[in-house]
Amino acid sequence: MKGHLRRTSGFTLIELMVTIVLLAILTMLAMPSFMTWINNNKVRTVSDSLQNGLRFAQSEALRRSRPMVFSLTNSSAPQTSLTAVANGSNWSINVSKSSLDANNVFVQAGVLTDVASGVQITGPAAICFNAMGRVVANTDTDVNGASCDTASVLQTYDVTLTPGADRPLRVLVALGGQIRMCDPARKLSDSPDGCP
Questions:
Q1: CA–CA dist 56, 53 (Å, integer)
Q2: What phi and psi, each to the nearest 5 degrees, are found at residue 28?
Q3: Which tens digits make up the pLDDT trace of 120-145?
Q4: 176-185: string of b/e by CB count within 10 Å (b at 16+)?
Q5: For position 138, what pLDDT does the model report?
Q6: Residue partners of 136: CB distance under 8 A and separation at least 6
Q7: 38-43 contact pairs (CB < 8 A, 24+)
Q8: Cα dist from 4 to 1, 8, 11, 70, whole Å
Q9: How far from 196 is each of 132, 168, 190, CA to CA, in Å?
Q10: 21, 60, 77, 163 - which has most CB atoms within 10 Å?
Q11: How confident is the model at residue 152 (pLDDT cuts 50, 70, 90)?
Q12: Average pLDDT, stretch 33-62?
């Protein structure tokens, strides 16, 4: 058996190249779905942060028995300079000016769109909670640019990412203080996560 060569097992160069090409094709086919998933997660992250900030403002109003102002702002340091804006990239909570407090007091702040770039928030610049955690009108908040209005039964924040996300979300704040997140593409009668 001197004339037989022994063949080693393993991949040939052609087999390896075919595998890499197939993997590249599958990756290219999955990329649009993966990017949409990432963008939808950005919208969800910002919506969660917004909802958590609103709930924290409400719980602080209950805990301190003081009116609170939740405001959107573009200020990165709202404890020193705060101006409420309708589509801010951060949020801030302040104790509202009342008969007990001469000036507002900074409580806490958080980020919104910095955690997920490109996400847009549409909604009121400020929402005021009374000492019982309910939404109230307040034009004298002592927060620059923050005037709370209750003309609508629901205060609505729409969170979107255009283009790229196919699932925008909405954060609703009812006059009674209920705060919930919903999907505007679904109806509440059809799905528990739908919007009214």
A1: 5
A2: -65, -35
A3: 999 999 999 999 999 999 888 778 88
A4: ebebebbeee
A5: 86
A6: 67, 128, 129, 130, 148, 150
A7: 39/118, 39/161, 39/164, 39/165, 40/165, 40/166, 40/167, 41/116, 42/116, 42/117, 42/118, 42/119, 42/161, 42/165, 43/116, 43/119, 43/159, 43/160, 43/161, 43/165, 43/167, 43/168, 43/169
A8: 6, 13, 21, 83
A9: 25, 15, 10
A10: 60
A11: confident
A12: 91
The tally of CA atoms less than 13 A away on the side-chain side of residue 15 is 4
Q: How would you class 90 by CB atoms within 10 Å of its CB: exposed for 0-12, middle for 13-18, buried for 19 or more?
A: buried
- The predicted model scores a pTM of 0.81
**Which amino acid belongs to residue 24?**
A
Q: pLDDT tens-digit profile of 16-32?
A: 899 999 998 888 887 77
